[in-house]
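Justification of computing resources. Each target in the renewal requires a structure prediction run like the one illustrated here; the chain below, 323 residues long, is used simply to show the kind of job we budget for.
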Amino acid sequence: MTMPEPRAPRHVPLAYVMRSGLVESVHHGSMVVLAPDGSVRYELGDPGSVMYPRSSMKPVQATAMTRLGLDLPADLLALAASSHSGERYHLDGARKILVRHGLSEDDLRNPVSMPLDPEVRDEWIAAGRAGSRVAQNCSGKHAAMLATVRGNGWSLSDYLEPDHPLQKEIARTAEDLSGEPVAHVAVDGCGAPLFALSLTGLARAVARIAAGAEGSAEHAVAEAIRAHPNMLGGSNRPVTELIRAVPELIAKDGYEGVMVAAMPDRSVVAVKIADGSGRARTPVTAAGLAMLGVPDARLAPFFEGARDDQADGVVLVPELRQE
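Resulting structure tokens:
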């Protein structure tokens, strides 16, 4: 394995924000498009530099847990890989994972939060409800982590420590799937260890999950995501709608402008927006999928005028406006 280089990323412009024909803002970043054989079909910026995958790593974490014996119905396995919106069915699903394994919400160590979905959050506020751990968008992953720990007879209270057997196995799985060593370990926003890889390494890892052989942990996770994209994200979430629009696709978004999308033939797109904004990552990801032959008719809703430099809003750089 080759360690990705821990340098300041050499990002380049990927998208502009236009207003009345004038560039108002610029989103720099990096992207990589890999062919089914793993070769680089296209890249912009610096996809070989170290980055934090954030929640785009969740399919990898779910694969590690499944390898460790986690056995969930497909909808709950998709929730284990989710950054959910906090809708009722998400919260009910997280509770089901806990109850199935003799656990409770008190065992969760992720932060207390209100639901991610603005409408649901407003409903909670109007009703005078306080935030909770199960409402936080990573509760499905944390419930699955606890279930995995319980199934293996490990200690529950320290399941988020980097040297816990669960987290060590997640790190090993990240290295196995990405083909590179974990470059750095930090703490994610939900309290779980966050393993740094290159953007290309993230792409390779998720591509291997998308192409997992039947009967493998990778295949189980990929099929769960394909079958239950609403559990992975939620209502009106771009990542959920992208999976629904493109047959056999798996995709995952992450905070700070990260997105990855992979097909079962191992072709894959991974994107990092340097300023952390989420508004450019979906059209840039869609542009990468177009390079892989996904029909325009399926991707059109995700461009939202991004190929027209006379339109207001997010507009892709010329290199990404292929039609």
